[in-house]
Each structure stands twice: as C-alpha cells, then as structure tokens.
UniProtKB/TrEMBL annotation, chains A, B:
InterPro entries named in the record: DhaK_1 (IPR012736), DhaK_dom (IPR004006), Dihydroxyacetone_Kinase (IPR050861)
PANTHER family tied to this protein: TRIOKINASE/FMN CYCLASE, TRIOKINASE_FMN CYCLASE
MF (Gene Ontology): glycerone kinase activity
Organism: Fusibacter tunisiensis
Keyword Ligase part of the UniProt annotation: no
Pfam families listed in its UniProt record: Dak1 (PF02733)
Name of the protein in question: Dihydroxyacetone kinase
Length: 330, 330
C-alpha cells in the first residue's frame, strides 16, 4: 500500500484538521468527537446533521455550510461514528427548531444515529431522521438491511438543507427529505478495488478485464462481475436500471450526477456524461442540471456511480436555492 | 488498461461535449478546433486564452469563465494543440483590447502558441504571451527547455483573469501575469504512473515501496526515485525546496495549493495539508488561503503537487476578486 499518510490511526483526525485549516471560513473541526461544524450556527432554523464512516470525502464534511448541513460526524474509515459522537453533534447545533439526521442506510449508521437521537430526546431536543437508500444494486448486503445509501445522499442534503434554510418546520424538512429519497436512485461500477489504510491491501480483486457492476461505496459486492465494457455500454445498462426504478417517461425532468469514486480521472467522468446525455436525449428525458465530480467516494477506487433525481416543482425550487460549502456551490 | 471510455481517438471530443453538456451556463465547446469558450464574451476587455494537451482536467476548460479564461484550447492527450487551433481561439474571443496567451512552458506548446500569435498579428490582433515555469524539479527535461509549467498555472490564470476583468490594459495584464509567474513555485510527487489511453500501459514503473520525487504532469522523470515516505516527511522536503526557491521568510504571506494528480483520494490531500500547515506554522510563514483538490492532473496518476504563491498587496487584491468557473469559485 502506498498512501500519503502518517500513522493509519491518525488519518481521520489529521484529515479533519487539514480540512478545517484549508477552509477556516466555512467549517470548524472538533477533534474530540470528530465533528465538522458550520462556522456560524443559526439556532432558529432546523439543524441538519449527516455523517458516517470516513473514506467518502468530500462527503460529508464537504457539504457543511450555507444551504446544506450544519454538522457532519466522521467515523473511522468505513466505520460508523459512535452514538456518543452523533449525540454531541446534535447537542452542539440544535436549537428550538429541532434537528434532522440524514443517515445513509447501513446497519451501523442506523443503530448509532438512532441511539444518539434517543439520547438527545432525553435532553428535550426534537430530533427526526431519514434514511437514504438510493443504491438500486442490491437489497440486503454485507452491511445493510434494505438498500444502501450512496451518492444520492448529497442531493437529499441539498434539498433538505434548502428547506431548513428558508425556515421550514422540522416535520416539513423531514417530509421533503423523504420525498427526495423516494425520487433519487443510484448505481455504481468499480474498475479497481479500494484499499482501506488500516488493512493495507485491496478489499477485493478484479481481473485486468473485469469490472464490478453494482459495487457499493465500501467495496461491497454488486450485482455481478462483468467483462470490461465501453462507456456507452455502461451508460446504457446503468440508465436502464435507474429509468426503470424511477418509472421515467418523456415528460420527466431530472438531475444527473456522475460521481467519481476517488481514483477516476475527470476525463472519464465527462466522456461518460456524454454517453448518458445521448441516451437520455434519445428517450426525450429532459436533464435540468448535471453534477460531475467526486461527490461520494470510496477512498481510491477507480469507477463511478450514476445518480438520477426525478424533479417535481416543489423539489426544483429547493434544488435551485443557493448553497455554499466546500464541495458544493449553487 | 481499464478506462471508462469508448474509442481512444474520440476521448477529447467526447469529453469536451460531455463537459459542455454538464455546464451549459458556463462554457461552449467547439468541436472542430477543440475550443472551450466562455458563454458570453466581453469584447472590451483583454481576452485570456490558455490550453495545452488534454489529460490535465479540470485544466484548462474548468477555468473558463468570469474572472479567469475566455477560452481554453485542447490538444490530444498530452499533446499540444496545433497553431491552427490556437489561432482560431484567438480569432473567436479577441476584441480591440487584445489577447494574452498563458502558455505552460513545454516546447510544443510554446512553438504552437507562438505561431498562432504571429498568425493573429497578421490579422491586426494584439497578442502577447506569458510562459509559466513553476515546477522547480528540473531544468530542461524530456519536453522542456527550462522549467516546466504545472499547477501554478491555475493561479496565474486567476490573477491575470482578475486584472483583465477589471479592465486593465493588455500590457498590464501581461505584467501582472509575469509577476505572478515569478512568485509561484511547485513540486510534484508520484505514487503511481499515469496511463495514456492511446498507449494503454503505464508510462513508467514504480516499485511497491517507491515514489517519483519531482515528477512532471506527463509522468516525466523527476529529481529522483525514492523510498516511500510519510506525508509529513514529504511535506518537509517539498516545502524546503519551495521556501528556498521563493526565499520565504516569516514576513511572507502565501497561498498554498495542494493539488491531486487525478488518482489521489481527497483524504490524503487533506492529511498532507495538515502536515504542510504544521511546518509553515513552525516557520511563522502566514497562509492567506489554501486550495485543496484536483486542479491540474496527470490523468489517473496517484500523487500530488504542492504549489506556493508568494503574495504582494497587488497580487492579493486580484487573488481576492470573484471567479466563477466550473472548477474554481471565489
């Protein structure tokens, strides 16, 4: 394993401090509980908290800021933050308007965020949660009951964040987050494995002409091992799945996110976006906006995921609202 | 070679179209001459053009927009655009205020941009050029006489772009770009080679415990092959070189850019930034701003470069001016 790190135990703390040092106008990093916090907290609005295992950078610290999250809680690499960490994040950013937890649907995350919510409720804080499950690849897997939460989480954070920023009630922010979750689907593909620093070797092996279709963001197995294929062939198969799941027709308007998994050149993401657009255009599905980049990664994995959000007028207004975070500008 | 592409011959065109489809509010892509052009051209201000071989995305198309470039010309992967391509870019964006070419110092780029400038001058257009040579690793190399131009180019584009936007004359924009070039230095390190699509195999081989110290953005050899080292040890050596070159003292204020080379997880870039800051802090060198991300890549190379810009009051005012492009927001 070659990585630009010091001791593997220190990665999350050093990364967190390095991030706060780079963006002092946007975030603070609290080392004790590994909490990334918005520079200025507005106690009158609903607070939004997400988080999860590290290794998915810029998620979620990169989405802390105006129009998105108030705090992100970081676990160790690919491990959920503890309930105590999440509890302290809730305590630090939640005012009388309450707090919404945006949880990716992994068993460990669900358990720890739920326990933290119960702890905070005993302090008379109002806490609600949503569970993002946008990955259409598998139902139930190594770390999940039900579907996994992946890059679509960023769009849930965007839309719920806009609702919170305009002053919606906690119940309404939760409702809009839930509506977004129902309209957002993703599918990923890996060309290489990731290497978890503490392990030091690749999580799985892929032959020189193989890809993992439907891979998860921790290197979990996907739908099947396949022979390498062209960008266009990949786009056809991935879009087929997403269009089917969302029941998209030529009357629909969507947001497309082409997400690099950490080791993928931007060049390939844009080539793939070209193929995605050609296929969508042939089906008369209108693309309202496109995001291309590394939004939710799997450390150094080569590969990408494709996310489609089906818009309604209600969601579109929130999608269009300003956001100013390290990794998302609108 | 596993890449998400179609035919290798089509990569630049498909990437360009995919990029314009993703960011229709910011850029247009002209397929014939592979020119990325600002959506709205202001004929009264000095036009700024950069470009070079593809494979360094988001450079340079990602820096076309308000406060930075008016056009970026794309060659094939790691090959200079032709003089005809550059000439057409000049023709398309240059008004009576003239045009500044920001050229990375590679023999092919210099030759073709210079020829294009001569062709445009025959059409009575005013064209000046600057040549960026921020890479302190080597003097003269495979593709260069003198030092190579690397990630510091982005900061030259930022500062010259701000000067052009505020209405400076062509001569003044050139002068400010030149002052920036004199104050910006970079050094890179590779953990893996890149793979040029048309070749299909890695450009060079590195052992499992080796790094290439001083690597160029095309995989050119650097200062020497070394044993892997910690992030902190790397930061010490890289900063030593840059501080020495710039003659930095505890009275200086700098911009730091930690640039991923394409295959490097953001996690590592932030860990490295943490080490950089600890060292700078011990030397009382003040960091005015930090950029962390993939700004000037070498396709899929794992590794990073470190760039330091020594600020003056004059440059700082321009650095602070707004910029709104695909890959740079200020």
């Amino acid at each position: 394993m070659k990585k630009i790190i010091n001791q593997t135990d220190d990665i999350v703390i050093q990364m967190g401090k390095g991030m706060a040092l780079a963006h002092p106008d946007k975030i603070e990093f609290e080392e004790k509980y590994k909490i990334f916090k918005r520079k200025t907290i507005n106690p009158k609005k609903v607070a939004l908290i997400s988080g999860g295992g590290s290794g998915h950078e810029p998620a979620h610290a990169g989405y802390v800021g105006t129009g998105m999250l108030d705090a992100a809680v970081a676990g160790d690499v690919f491990a959920s933050p503890s309930s105590v960490q999440v509890y302290h994040a809730i305590k630090q950013v939640t005012g009388e308007a309450g707090c919404l937890l945006i949880v990716k649907n992994y068993s460990g995350d669900c358990m720890n965020f739920d326990t933290a919510a119960e702890m905070a409720e005993e302090d008379d804080l109002k806490v609600l949660s949503v569970y993002v499950n946008d990955d259409v690849a598998v139902k139930d897997s190594l770390y999940t009951i039900g579907r996994r939460g992946v890059a679509g989480t960023v769009l849930v954070e965007k839309i719920a964040g806009a609702a919170a920023e305009r002053g919606d009630s906690l119940e309404n922010v939760q409702l809009l987050a839930q509506k977004t979750i129902e309209q957002v689907k993703s599918i990923g593909v890996a060309l290489t494995s990731c290497t978890v620093p503490a392990k030091g070797t690749p999580t799985f092996d892929l032959g020189s002409d193989e890809i993992e279709f439907g891979v998860g963001i921790h290197g979990e197995p996907g739908i099947e091992r396949r022979k390498s294929m062209t960008s266009h062939a990949l786009a056809v198969e991935m879009l087929d799945l997403l269009i089917g799941e969302l029941g998209l027709t030529d009357e629909d308007e969507i947001v497309v996110m082409v997400n690099g998994l950490g080791g993928t050149p931007l060049q390939e993401l844009y080539v793939f976006n070209h193929d995605v657009r050609a296929i969508l255009s042939s089906k008369n599905i209108h693309v309202y906006d496109t995001l291309v980049g590394n939004y939710m990664t799997a450390i150094d994995m080569a590969g990408l995921s494709l996310t489609v959000l089906k818009l309604t007028d209600e969601l579109k207004a929130l999608y269009d609202a300003p956001a100013d975070t390290i990794a998302y500008h609108k």
